[in-house]
Amino acid sequence: MAATPDFSQLDISEHEKDKLVGEVIRYILFKTEQNGGCPIKREDLTQLITAFGDAKSYIITSQLPADVYTKFVEDKSSSHMTGLTFVVVGIIHLCGGKVTEENLWHHLKRLGLHENEENHPNFANTKLALEALVHQRYLQKEKVNGPEGNIVYYELAERALDAAVNDRIKEYVTQIVQKDVVSLEAD
């Protein structure tokens, strides 16, 4: 059973607490939609309330069943970004959770996405589309100094490591691999 937060130290009434929670939730929902799913900075939330922990940003994730989310929430006009997210997270997942930028672009080139392309019909600038996945916390980007110069790594971040997302990625990748095996056996 989840513990109920103790607001007695804040010296606010139940009505004030409910109003504050409603304002925070409303703010989070609108800000998440406005920022394209990017995390919300702590400073933005502390303007509403000052009783937050040590986190630097907050991520809202949907708890809706997939069919309800698809019917009522999913934005069909951004399906290309959903597809890119799935492909990139899938590649990094198959590479063990971390991949060099060079290796990631090698795999994306095989799918027709080029690192320096600025006029892609769906993504415009493909490098910026990949950077959006970092801002939305699907990926972390890390620059490491090595003997051969700087190497950039992409690693799975909070949203990609979420149990529901991780399970769906594994399920879809398994389905793809099984289809490939079946089609090879048929040949």
From TrEMBL:
The lineage of its organism: Eukaryota, Viridiplantae, Streptophyta, Embryophyta, Tracheophyta. Residues 81-187 form the MAGE domain. InterPro entries: MAGE, MAGE_WH1, MAGE_WH2, MHD_dom. It comes from Rehmannia glutinosa. This is MAGE domain-containing protein. Pfam families: MAGE.
